[in-house]
Design a protein that fits this description.
This protein has 120 residues and is mainly α. The chain is built from four helices and no strands. It is elongated, with a radius of gyration of 27 Å.
């Protein structure tokens, strides 16, 4: 009789452990779903941010300084004419990104697909 109660208590403990692990797995899946939704919603801006920072890092230091000055809104060091030209050019940046975004998404998806479908 004692063995039955030991077995039942052991089974009960395993059942409780299984329920705890199932709850953890469900919570992890929920977090993963939320992160996946965020990624799908923001893939374009994430890709563009990555591409922009990569391109910026490859530029010569003087150009990086000009870009950094506009990012920090510290335009006092640049002449008003150059500042005006850059302001006008920056007005076209949203249009540029709007046109490039679909192309970047298609390119990224092709690369991801190729990554997973290539045979080693």
């Amino acid at each position: 009789m004692e063995k039955k109660s030991e077995k039942s208590s052991e089974l009960e403990r395993l059942h409780l452990e299984k329920m705890r692990l199932q709850k953890e797995a469900d919570a992890s899946l929920q977090r993963l779903d939320e992160q996946w939704d965020y990624l799908q919603s923001n893939i374009g801006s994430l890709l563009m941010g990555t591409v922009a920072s990569t391109v910026k890092s490859k530029l010569p230091p003087p150009v990086q300084q000009v870009i950094s000055s506009f990012e920090s809104k510290d335009r006092k060091r640049i002449s008003p004419h150059v500042s005006s030209l850059i302001d006008k050019a920056l007005d076209f940046v949203p249009l540029f990104f709007k046109g490039i975004k679909p192309l970047a998404i298609v390119f990224a998806l092709k690369k991801i697909k190729k990554l997973f479908l290539t045979k080693n």
